[in-house]
Structures are given as C-alpha cells and as structure tokens.
Amino acid sequence: MTHDVQHPVPDALLMGYATGALPQAFDLVLATHVSLCDDARARLETFEAIGGAVLEDMDVADIAEDSLDRTLALMDGMQPVAPPAPSSGTFPTPLQAIVGGDEDAVRWRSLGGGVKQSVLQSDKYGTARLLLIPAGRAMPPHSHRGTEMTLVLKGAFRDEDGVFARGDLEVADAAVNHQPIAEAGEDCICLVATDARLRFQSLLPRIAQPFLGI
Ligand code: ZN
Q1: What is the DSSP secondary-structure string of the chain?
Q2: Could you tell me the CATH number of the domain that includes residue 15?
Q3: pTM
C-alpha cells in the first residue's frame, strides 16, 4: 500500500527507529507509518544498510573502546525492517497487535465535543493514543512542550502545514502552533505519540552520530 508523500518523515526519526533508540510510543507510530508508506520503508532500509556498512569498515584497533561499546549497544537495539504485512481493515498489523484487533476493538473514552481517545501505551518517556475527531470538527489550537507525532489512519485533517490523509505523518515540536480540523465527510482517526519535555530532541544528535560518522 502506498500514498502520496506530501510530508516525508525526517531522517533522524527513521535512524532512531532503526537503532531502537526511540521511546516506545514513537516506535509504535514509526512501525505503523512504515507499514503504510513505501517511501519511509525504503529510506529506513537504506539507513540500516549504511549502519551495517559503517560497522564492517571499522578497524577495531582504530576505535576507542567506549566507542565500540556504544556501537555494539546500538546494534543490539537494531530492529529488522518489518515487511509490509498484509492487513485487512483500518489498522496496519503493528497497530492491530497493540489494540487487539481493528477499529471495532478500540475502547474509546469521550473527551467531549464528539472527540474520543484511547490510550494504548504510556511510560515516563511518552504516550501513544488513538484519537477520533468527528468529520468537520476542529481540535483546540495548541503548541507543544516536546515532540508530537500524528499518523492519520482514517479520514484526513488539515492544519497550518497542509492536509494530512491516511499514511501521512505530522511531526510537531515546540516551534509549531496548530489547530487540526478534520476534513468533512468522514471521521478522522489518528495514532498520536507525545513525549515528556524535550528529552526526545536531545536524543537525536546522539542517534545520528554513529550512522553519519560525524
Ligand atoms: Zn499538536
């Protein structure tokens, strides 16, 4: 399954996913996105190939012992690229595994105004939840303390960055102020991950370093 890539996911996030260094909530969003987006999956495979080639080229005697330890620790965390497992229904396979089924298995809780949510995972590093916005309904305008990733699974929403439809991923941080509004005609269901504070942002340079050799 593929879709028009209007909003490509940042490289740093794919690298973080490849090394298993992301908080669990973001892992779930990336795994789900990759299973919907051929472009993201292809780029992820490239990063994994680069990571492997960098490791093969290393002369072990030339690298500091702690650097080798760090590299090996990163390899431990690497996850194989999941092939796009076939899934009938609204939710891709990685998400169905967490929900315990498709859309009709979700236990929604009302947030008022017809908006509903279902928290899927939560720990001190982040929370993953499903969000249902009724067709045509606007969310309150907001900015962000940390990072927010929103993956559209059904319907579409529009905000200051454009239109996001099934398979599209919006990454918003403290610099982003937006007001998502569900497009008319169909309720919009999204998978949303948020982190605590800015921990996630400070993680990214450390993730990218061993891959890029900088
Ligand atoms: Zn937001």
Answers
A1: -----SSPPPHHHHHHHHTT-S-HHHHHHHHHHHHH-HHHHHHHHHHHHHHHHHHHH--GGGS-HHHHHHHHHHHHH--PPPP-----SSS-HHHHHHHTSSGGG---EEEETTEEEEEEEEETTEEEEEEEE-TTPBPPPB--SS-EEEEEEESEEEETTEEEETT-EEEE-TT--B--EEPTTS-EEEEEEEESTTHHHHHHHHHHHHHHT-
A2: 2.60.120.10
A3: 0.77
